[in-house]
Amino acid sequence: MATEHAGNAEHALTPSSYIEHHLSFNAQPVSDGAGFWTLHVDTFVMSVALGLIVMGLVWLVARKATSGVPTKGQAFVELVFGFIDDQVKNIFHGNRHSFIAPTALTVFLWVFAMNAMDFLPVDWVAGIVSFFGGADAKWRAVPTSDINTTFALALSVWILMIFFAIKVKGLGGFVHELFCAPFGSKIWVWPANFLFNLIEYVSKPLSHSLRLFGNMYAGEVIFLLLGLWAATGVTGTIAGAILGAGWSIFHILIVALQAFIFMMLTVVYLAMAHESH
Amino acid sequence: MNINFTLIAQAIAFAVLIWFTVKFVWPPLLKAIEARQKEIADGLAAAQEGRSALEVAAKKSEVTLTEAKQKASEIIAQAEKRGTQIVEEAKGNAKSEGERIIAGAKAEIDQEVNRAKEGLRAQVSTLAIAGAEKILRKEIDAKAHSELLSKLAAEL
Predict the structure, then answer these.
(1) Residue A129's CB: how many other CB atoms inside 10 A?
(2) Which of A30, A43, A47, A231 is least buried, going by the fewest C-beta atoms within 10 A?
(3) HEC profile of A111-150
(4) A148: domain range?
(5) Which distant-in-sequence residues (6+ apart) come within 8 Å of A274 by Cβ?
(6) Burial of B61 by CB count in 10 Å (0-12 exposed, 13-18 middle, 19+ buried)?
(7) Predicted confidence (pLDDT) per residue in A36-87, tens digit
(8) Which residue from A minimizes the CA distance to B3?
(9) Whole-model pTM?
């Protein structure tokens, strides 16, 4: 939130270079040619570390889970478990425990943890990274403000969706549904049905991923703009700090809400794949 | 904002996390929660059972108590009856015993009277003989008439 760092820049720091620095990834080529074969090390390290920490903590509790009087940690984990399980139970009517409910738990906790990195003051992260890696070192702390992360999740869900659709209905049933739903099985509506389904299958991962990405990216940009304001002087610093605090508090809601929406859409898409029309 | 290899790396990370949760996180939690739910359900059922058992026992104890009271009053009534019976019996016994004693005494008295009569009779005959002897001494020989006299005495 507080962004004193922006003010005392050593070398000519313009607003655009400040924002550009904060919005660039620590991209490293993994192969000779750049382009596609680049890895955002910051995104990847942060997300994997968060995933390991969050799911590891839950695992530590789950490993020693007792049916007797639970510890406070177990009670908390069970609270989350019950919350997710209830949501899935309302949407998906099948054996949810074998795959869909655990997936929902993973998505919710992981996305929540990644979103929550937005609470780290942007300039503190930049300060720590430039302390170790020099002024040009880049590090973006919020993996979900990287389109690669959200798109990876949405695309994985999309693949699972098609996998379950084929698994439940068979390949024939899946293709049949592509052409015969939602308008009927008459041959002259086949193109319309196919076009409809095509749009649906394309729009699902796009809306799924871009919603989360857009929210987190916009949140980060607003923090940066408030940081820029702080560079204008004392008044700007105070106003920026107050607004930054307000935005952070509001962001608690957005972080939780977007994680919840992402989880719910995942469950809904996977549940829809199990239903035949 | 370009799509690159990060996408694939993140997808793999996602897959691994899902696998981990499906395999290691979800089952123990589910097991613990379901076991607890079952325990609670069993406990509630046991409590319900206990409550109904208590009700049955209360009813049974009431019945037993009533029975015991009835039996006790029966026993008391019987004892009273038996008591009066014993008293009656004792009374009867005492009466008959008294009558028997009285009858014995009466018989003894009769016997005594008879003996006294015998004695008197013997004495009267002796006296009569003595009187007659005194009278007849003068006129008859005692020897000649003693046989007659003893005959007379025996007849008395």
Answers:
(1) 19
(2) A30
(3) HHHHHHHHHCCHHHHHHHHHHHHCCCCCCCCCHHHCHHHH
(4) 4-274
(5) A92, A94, A164, A165, A168
(6) exposed
(7) 888 888 899 999 999 999 999 999 999 988 888 889 999 999 999 999 999 9
(8) A148
(9) 0.75
User: In this structure, which amino acid lies at residue A210?
Assistant: L
Of B5, B22, B24, the CB nearest to A37: B5
**Would residue A95 show up in a list of annotated catalytic residues for this protein?**
no
Number of domains in chain A: 1
A96 is catalytic: no
Dihedral sign, Cα of residue A269, residue A270, residue A271, residue A272:
positive
Cα–Cα distances (Å) from A45 to A27, A274, B16, in that order, read 12, 34, 15
Nearest-Cα distance to chain B for A265, in Å, is 16
Catalytic, A215? Answer yes
Burial of A248 (0-12, 13-18, 19+ CB in 10 A): middle
Query: Would you state the structure tokens that stand for residue A18, as one six-digit string?
Result: 């400040």
Cis peptide before A182 (omega within 30 of 0): yes
Residue A67 in contact with residue A127, Cβ under 8 Å? no
Q: Is the ipTM of this complex over 0.90?
A: no
